[in-house]
Amino acid sequence: MTDEATVCAAAFFRIRGKDVVTPKEFAMTVSLDLKWMPVKEAYALADLLIERKAMTRSGGYLRSAEGLNVLAVPIAYRPSETFRQEIVARLKGSTKRTKAPATATGDDLFPALVDLAVKAGVPKGKFISECNGLKKKLGIDVCAAALIVLRDHGADAEELTEKVYQQLLVH
């Protein structure tokens, strides 16, 4: 029988449609697109999947383990509550934050962009939804999509534009 970590990794990579992703892309997809869990838990999930050999980390990228592409995965897979509680327990027991190596601006840009949208009067849920839709439609980074959505709502995002640009150059 296949353990849940392996099924989870197989489901993620099958849904994502590729075998290699950045840790940030993993966390954002798991959290914002698939809505499996919050971002912090998604980073802990990545660490757990690496530990259980369902994924590997090399050169700043996460790769699916060999043979996951032939694994049978339930159509509407979501991590079980037991598996999620294991991730939450790991997160609570950890004193360090489990996330990707960050640039100087780090992965904190999207929350800062969300805060900017809220200050501009855009409801948080609506903003995130519009960002995800634009990200999928144009195939761009969620922070780049956020800048476009902010512009469309008339918000001034000049203070974060350069940081987003620098982050995109790194990725």
Q: In what order do the strands lie side by side in the largest sheet?
A: 1-3-2
Q: Please count the helical segments.
A: 8
- Characterize the largest beta sheet: strand count, sense, and whether it forms a barrel: 3 strands, antiparallel
- Low-confidence stretches at least 5 residues in length (pLDDT < 50)? 95-106
* Structural domain count: 2
- Please tally the β strands and state the result: 3
Strand content: 5-15%
Give the helix level as a range of percent.
Answer: 55-70%
SS content category: mainly alpha
Mean pLDDT: 85
Series of secondary-structure elements, N-terminal to C-terminal: HEHHEEHHHHH
Overall shape: it is elongated
Between the first and last Cα atoms, what is the distance in angstroms? 37 Å
Radius of gyration: 17 Å
Protein described:
The structure is a single chain. By secondary structure, the protein is mainly α. The protein folds into 2 domains: about 5-95, no CATH class; about 105-170, no CATH class. The longest helix has 15 residues, at about 125-140. The chain has a 3-stranded antiparallel sheet. Helix content is about 60%, strand content about 5%.
